[in-house]
Amino acid sequence: MRNQRNKWKEKLHEIIYEADTREGKVFDVILLIAILSSVLFVMLESVDDIQVKYGAALNIGEWILTILFSLEYILRIVAINKPSKYIFSFYGIIDFLSTIPKYLSIFFIGTHSLVALRALRLLRVFRILKLARFIGESNNFVKALKASKAKIAVFLFFVLILCIILGTVMYLIEGGDNGFTSIPRSVYWAIVTLTTVGYGDIAPHTAFGQLIASVIMILGYGIIAVPTGIISSEMTKTQDLHLNTQACPNCGEDGHDDDAAFCNHCGSKLHN
Amino acid sequence: MRNQRNKWKEKLHEIIYEADTREGKVFDVILLIAILSSVLFVMLESVDDIQVKYGAALNIGEWILTILFSLEYILRIVAINKPSKYIFSFYGIIDFLSTIPKYLSIFFIGTHSLVALRALRLLRVFRILKLARFIGESNNFVKALKASKAKIAVFLFFVLILCIILGTVMYLIEGGDNGFTSIPRSVYWAIVTLTTVGYGDIAPHTAFGQLIASVIMILGYGIIAVPTGIISSEMTKTQDLHLNTQACPNCGEDGHDDDAAFCNHCGSKLHN
Amino acid sequence: MRNQRNKWKEKLHEIIYEADTREGKVFDVILLIAILSSVLFVMLESVDDIQVKYGAALNIGEWILTILFSLEYILRIVAINKPSKYIFSFYGIIDFLSTIPKYLSIFFIGTHSLVALRALRLLRVFRILKLARFIGESNNFVKALKASKAKIAVFLFFVLILCIILGTVMYLIEGGDNGFTSIPRSVYWAIVTLTTVGYGDIAPHTAFGQLIASVIMILGYGIIAVPTGIISSEMTKTQDLHLNTQACPNCGEDGHDDDAAFCNHCGSKLHN
Amino acid sequence: MRNQRNKWKEKLHEIIYEADTREGKVFDVILLIAILSSVLFVMLESVDDIQVKYGAALNIGEWILTILFSLEYILRIVAINKPSKYIFSFYGIIDFLSTIPKYLSIFFIGTHSLVALRALRLLRVFRILKLARFIGESNNFVKALKASKAKIAVFLFFVLILCIILGTVMYLIEGGDNGFTSIPRSVYWAIVTLTTVGYGDIAPHTAFGQLIASVIMILGYGIIAVPTGIISSEMTKTQDLHLNTQACPNCGEDGHDDDAAFCNHCGSKLHN
Fold first, then answer.
1. Which end of chain D has the least Cβ crowding within 10 Å, N or C?
2. Which region, left, alpha or beta, applies to residue A255 given φ > 0 means left and ψ of -120 to 50 means alpha?
């Protein structure tokens, strides 16, 4: 009997956690639809006009999805051998955070807007669609991103320090009357400017401030080339290193084309 | 007689659908001028000052062009063997949509502004000028774009999901009083920010909101490198594969390495 | 005597049009300073506060420079054999346009602001500094730009057409009440958005308008990769073609390193 | 005794200026924390709400850090053989500028905001973390940046000249009523536009002005590809030269082609 329970558990695990069987795929598709609908419901509900008209219907829809997600959450815990492994995993925490606010909203009125946390569930879309596989006909893409991650982090760190210094300088130059009321706000402005976003909610008014702002803008326009250069060169490098590693059995020459049948150095036949 | 009609139809087909004969080229040039004028007329008419002064003249001009386009539409149907093939083609639908509103405007007053749909006709410019051929001295360009299409689509999909999540978070942080009145609006703001457009019609006011906004901006500034890296490396890759044009004297296979001494397909010696 | 006049003319030509002699270089430096001062004067004069205080002094300075530029203009005409060649050249027209407004301002009061056209003179800076030479330690840079010029022009043309169509669509969706008062204005907005500039002077207010705007922004964010990819790959290609073309006298193998003394294929000595 | 003093001085030099010993590393970490806290204090103090509540506590914290920094400054002078070498170095000046304002604020009330100059100290973070080493697993990155520095400087200079000319043209077209009150301000606007920042504090209102603005935007959107292309191609080039690490067994020369059978320097056979 214990054996049978295990079998049932294994089956459940297969359906919920894997996507190789027919049932697993159906489960994934239903989950995908449920996630997208729940995000849609939450988005629509936040629009005042729609909330007034269709609020009740949306609320019922949300409750149905919340119960479904709760069921999924319980089944995920049941189907795994070490439930704590799921509960404290990245997706486990997201699943919990996106399900609980609806229940809380019964008891605490103010917490209803937290239902919006359900949008975090969208991250699971990446897992379900296994987008990485879709990109990775050449796995090089992911490799290049990983290889350049450190460099880009240093670059963004450099940008941040630059923004703190430049923001502080602008705070001294422009002052509170022109909207640069505090250093954090000035740093925020510097980031808005350097990244070429440019809201315009804060903008320099003094001639000297506009001069510094111009320097920041041209700087931001110029150094955007750095992350681009890093990734471009990394991707070019990665693919260069992905030549065929097959060696000729006669002369040992490698670097053959993928479709080579004969060694291009000594003419011997290559094993396929 | 039926034969003669077919001949006449073939001639018409040649003029309208092809551009190899002198008449075909003349037709294309006239069509190009007509399209550009009609777009210009529509643009000018939408400007209030010009509409008041030259409205009557523009209206006449539009009617002339509408009749010409109607004629072209009819001729295109006549000249082709399977009219449905044209009517339901991409350009067939555009031609219809850009011609009909002028007629509708006689009967329904409100529909006049739909005449602006004529701008869609500009797409035909690409076909007439055969711009692809102009680019494609190296067809690699188009190849690289096609090869990176999937990756860029995944990237943009990732950006969209990111914007939905970040927009929702900002909706919770900032709230309606600061302009983030609904989740769709907040998502719109997140897109405006991440793509570094930055209108400033909605902008964060709380310190925490500005912090998140800064993260989004730096993120947007950093990940713009991804599509650029994809296309750059794809284009570099494509051209690298087109170096050696040497063909094997035995089997005719080409695409050998520059330093190949033997054909990698049949093992024959290559002439240097 | 005629011979002597020619000699004097040749000397003048050398000083003004060339930069190989000491006098020619001195002339260039003085001209550079004069151009920069004149631009500075014009810029300062346009600032109201400075105009009130130092207007008279700036006016005198401008007159001195105007007379110097007039002299230069006359000398350039005298020193060349075919004056019309200079007068109707690009720089000839700029020199004329940047000198004449000051004289006109005596007779016509309104024309004084045209003095600002003097800024066009800054273009001559490129010629004097021969910046191209500075870049062109590798002439590849200029080559790559020229090679990608056509492709980038097509790309920008494509962007323009896209903006006209999208602008027209937004005009229909948003309408005059939301700032999209005419098609040209909507097209202007589409350009502001697609290029990720985003002033915010015009911004969509309807939900559907914001949806289309989001699409435009993500599009603009994605296709900026195209010109970058074109130039990057072009520059990489150009340098790839600059390998050593020296062939081994023994085995005929080429593609040697620039500093190779022996063939890397058969070991024979290479002729340097 | 003099010898002993030198020994003590050497020890101090090791701790303060180097990071190889345990004490040196501890010193660096403490300095890092002190710098980050001092910047945090200054940032918080500039926020009005926080200043009101915690102003006194922050002031005490700042005084403690100021005294620590003063001590560090004195020790740095003591520990070095030629104090002037430190005092007038880049970091020496920054250390001085970031320490002195707090003392000045006792005597001169207006100077307190200059304490914000402490943010300049953040530059030392780069030195302490030796970020360059972190990036430079491939030193190519720094090499590529240095190699492209000149080209990018020329590019930015070109952008600046372009902005001056276009700004002047816009000043003539739009005039003071539309916000283009002076040429420097118009140039500032041109920079804001070309770099795709787009605050919207100044924006063209006339049809012709919007046309020119559109051209500037499309230009800015297109030529951002230039610095990116420069760096990308430079980085690709640099790494291409670093492929083969095989050294000749005879002369020790490295940098051979991957398929080299003989040393290209001395003609000896290479071991495969």
1. N
2. left
D269 strand-pairing partners: D262
In D, minimum Cα distance to B196 occurs at D197
At C136, the amino acid letter reads: G
D196 at B interface, C-beta within 8 A? yes
Whether B6 has its CB under 8 Å from any CB of chain A: the answer is: no
Is the distance from CB of D119 to CB of D42 less than 8 angstroms?
yes
Contact by Cβ (8 Å): C264, D260? yes
Q: Does B196 touch chain D (CB under 8 A)?
A: yes
Per-residue pLDDT of chain D (272 residues; tens, 9 = 90+): 567 777 888 888 888 887 778 888 888 889 889 999 998 998 888 888 888 999 899 989 999 999 999 999 999 998 888 888 889 988 889 889 888 888 888 887 766 677 778 888 888 877 776 655 555 544 566 677 777 777 788 888 888 889 999 999 999 888 888 889 889 999 999 999 999 999 988 899 988 999 999 999 999 998 888 888 888 777 776 654 444 455 556 666 555 555 556 665 566 666 54
Instruction: Indicate yes or no: CB of B196 within 8 angstroms of CB of D200.
Output: no
Domains observed in chain D: 2-130 (1.20.120), 147-235 (1.10.287.70)
- Which are the contacts of B168, defined by CB distance < 8 A and separation ≥ 6? A42, A43, A116, A117, A119, B183, B186, B187
In this prediction, residue A268 has a pLDDT band, given cuts at 50, 70 and 90, of low
- Closest residue in A to C229 (Cα) is A232
Looking at this protein, which amino acid is placed at residue B233?
Answer: S
Q: What chain D residue is nearest to B44 in terms of C-alpha separation? A: D207
Residue B149, both tokens: 């299409």
- Positive/negative CA dihedral, C48, C52, C57, C59: positive
With beta carbons under 8 A apart, name residues in chain C contacting A196.
196
Asked whether the beta carbons of residue A156 and residue B218 sit closer than 8 angstroms, the reply is yes
Phi and psi, residue B269, nearest 5° = -75, 140
Diameter over CA atoms, chain C: 83
Query: What is the radius of gyration, based on Cα positions, of chain C?
Result: 28
Among partner residues A47, A198, A207, which is closest to C198 by beta-carbon distance? A198
- How far are the Cα atoms of A12, B187, C17, D132 from residue D143, in angstroms, in the given order? 56, 41, 38, 12
pLDDT in tens, C86-123: 899 888 898 898 888 888 888 877 666 777 788 888 88
Identify all chain B residues contacting A235, using CB atoms and an 8 Å cutoff. 229-230, 232-233
Which amino acid belongs to residue D56? A
Continuous segment of H or E residues that includes residue C36: helix C22-45
Contacts of B166 in chain A (CB under 8 A): none
If one counts every other C-beta atom within 10 angstroms of the C-beta of residue C239, the result is: 18
- Is the CB of residue B179 less than 8 Å away from at least one CB of chain C? no
ipTM over 0.95: no
Closest partner CB to B184 (pick from C203, C207, C220): C207
Q: Any bridge partners for residue B269, and if so which?
A: B262
Provide, as residue numbers in chain B, all residues whose Cβ is less than 8 Å from the Cβ of A98: none
| Nearest by CB: C228 against A207, A228, A236 | A228
What is the CB neighbour count within 10 angstroms for residue B89?
A: 13
For residue range A121-160, what is the model confidence (pLDDT) as tens digits?
888 877 776 655 555 544 566 677 777 777 788 888 888 8
User: Are C199 and A199 inside 8 Å of each other by CB?
Assistant: no
Tokens of A20: 């190789």
Who among C47, C200, C207 is closest to A200 (CB)? C200
Reference D168, options C41, C212, B107, C135; nearest CA is C41
Provide the 8-state DSSP code for C262. B
What is the least distance, in Å, from the CA of C235 to any CA of chain D? Answer: 6
Q: Are D45 and D51 in contact (CB under 8 A)?
A: yes
pTM of this prediction? 0.82
